[in-house]
Design brief:
By secondary structure, this protein is an alpha/beta fold. It has a single domain, classed as TIM Barrel (Alpha-Beta Barrel). Helices cover 20% and strands 20% of the residues. Strands 1-2-5-9-10 form a five-stranded mixed beta sheet. A three-stranded antiparallel beta sheet has the order 6-8-7, with no helix packed on it. A hairpin with a 2-residue loop joins strand 9 and strand 10. The protein is globular, with a radius of gyration of 17 Å.
């Protein structure tokens, strides 16, 4: 992308193979062949949720490695796993709350199809998948969104993790539309079951389809 002649990553990138400062890769979300074609989400009432951090859940710290431990999780009697934020961030390990590419899963955890494979494998075992998402800010390192339009951010609001989005007031509608109703790292592209946003769970029931 070249606003004003400068090169920046695509703000809606689906994958950053060289990190948040590098070039964006075009991803075909239709290429993945789902195995769990008959999966149906369980009722929300009475479900236990297992929250996990992909980077610390296994020694490898990847989506694919997490698949190997799903049988153990299912044996515990839980009905869903909740992935802590996976939007890409600078560096190799992170809690996920200062991510800067909302639609691209962290390359250190694997490629987009690796995340799909994790969701797919969870569904095969009867587990729902919830994504913990962050919609109120972007982190400070690798945040190029303001290079396209400064109106994306609220100059009067700041968070401990980074710049706050401009979500209310004049010119705020395009900002809200940027991440709603369903982020590309959410249900439509990865067949996840719901979202947990800033510790307040918001469940969705979108069908398994892709862009």
């Amino acid at each position: 992308m070249r606003p004003d002649g400068a090169e920046f990553p695509d703000p809606a990138s689906r994958f950053q193979p060289e990190g948040v400062h590098g070039p964006s890769e075009v991803i075909d979300h239709r290429a993945y062949v789902w195995q769990s074609t008959t999966w149906k989400r369980p009722a929300w009432s009475g479900q236990a949720i297992y929250e996990l951090h992909v980077g610390t859940f296994t020694p490898e710290g990847t989506f694919r490695a997490a698949i190997e431990r799903l049988d153990h999780i299912a044996s515990l009697g839980v009905g869903a796993i909740e992935l802590m934020p996976v939007a890409d961030f600078p560096g190799g390990r992170n809690w996920g709350y200062d991510g800067v590419t909302l639609f691209a899963p962290a390359r250190c955890y694997g490629r987009p199809d690796d995340l799909r494979a994790l969701v797919d494998a969870a569904h095969v075992r009867g587990l729902a998948v919830i994504l913990d998402v962050v919609y109120n800010h972007l982190g400070p390192d690798g945040n190029y969104l303001g290079a396209y339009a400064k109106e994306y951010f609220d100059a009067d609001r700041h968070t401990p993790w980074g710049q706050a989005f401009h979500l209310a007031g004049r010119d705020s509608r395009p900002v809200r539309e940027f991440s709603s109703p369903t982020p590309p790292t959410g249900s439509t592209s990865f067949a996840s079951t719901g979202f947990a946003s800033m510790r307040r769970t918001r469940f969705s029931t979108y069908p398994k389809n892709t862009y």
